[in-house]
Amino acid sequence: MCRLISTPAAGAIRPREAGLASAAATMITKGVRAVGDAPAIDENALGEAWADLGASFGAGADSDALSFSLRSLTDPPLLARAAQLASRQMGQPAWPEDIWQRERARWSAAIRESDTRPGTVAGKAFAKAVYGSHPYGQRATAETLCADRGGRAARLCRSAMCKPAAPGWPSSAPSRARRPRPW
Questions:
Q1: pLDDT, tens only, 117-145
Q2: What whole-number distance in Å separates Cα of residue 9 and Cα of residue 16?
Q3: pLDDT tens per residue, range 81-100
Q4: Which residues contact 107 (CB under 8 A, 6 or more apart)?
Q5: Residue 28, exposed/middle/buried by CB under 10 A (0-12, 13-18, 19+)?
Q6: C-alpha dihedral over 124, 129, 153, 150, to 10 degrees?
Q7: Do residues 92 and 35 lie in contact, with contact meaning Cβ atoms separated by under 8 Å?
């Protein structure tokens, strides 16, 4: 298993951009753009491609990191194909507008529903009291999701932190990813 983590500088996410990394993590799994000779891949074809490789790729976000994980068989040809597909997902996300609208509506509804739970309300109040305006105290809201319209999060996906690996990776360059610990 390989895990890549991108940690922005403290304060890099502004309050109006709360949820940006989570939006990027969600949309990275929804399709890949066509680039050069490489064809576009929609979210269904991505699922089939990962199943054919016997591998999985995921993206996630928390208060201070956007992370990616790749789990693959160690057979060199399969591992190389899985690494290349993961690289394309990170560096060439399609960000289809119809899927972004669907996911944003689903996420907004989930936020509104969770805001009716006492534990969620208390957690938000605690974060605001402890962290104030620091990014750790910010939470995505239906308003921050609507304000972005996918633009900044899409650019985040296409930024330098998510550029695709060089051709031939992983064999042409040493991996800087740390091995997972056994605990």
A1: 999 999 999 988 998 888 778 788 777 77
A2: 17
A3: 999 999 999 888 888 889 98
A4: 19, 23, 26, 140, 145
A5: buried
A6: 50
A7: yes
The residue length of the chain stands at 183
Q: For the CA atoms of 134, 136, 137, 138, what is the dihedral angle to 10 degrees?
A: 100
CA dihedral 126, 132, 133, 138 (to 10 degrees): -10
Instruction: Give this prediction's pTM.
Output: 0.71
Rg, the chain, Cα only = 18
* Distance linking the first and last C-alpha atoms of the chain: 14
User: Sign of dihedral through CA atoms 113, 119, 120, 122?
Assistant: positive
* Pair 12, 81: CB distance under 8 Å: no
158, 126, 155: which is closest to 139 by C-alpha?
Answer: 126
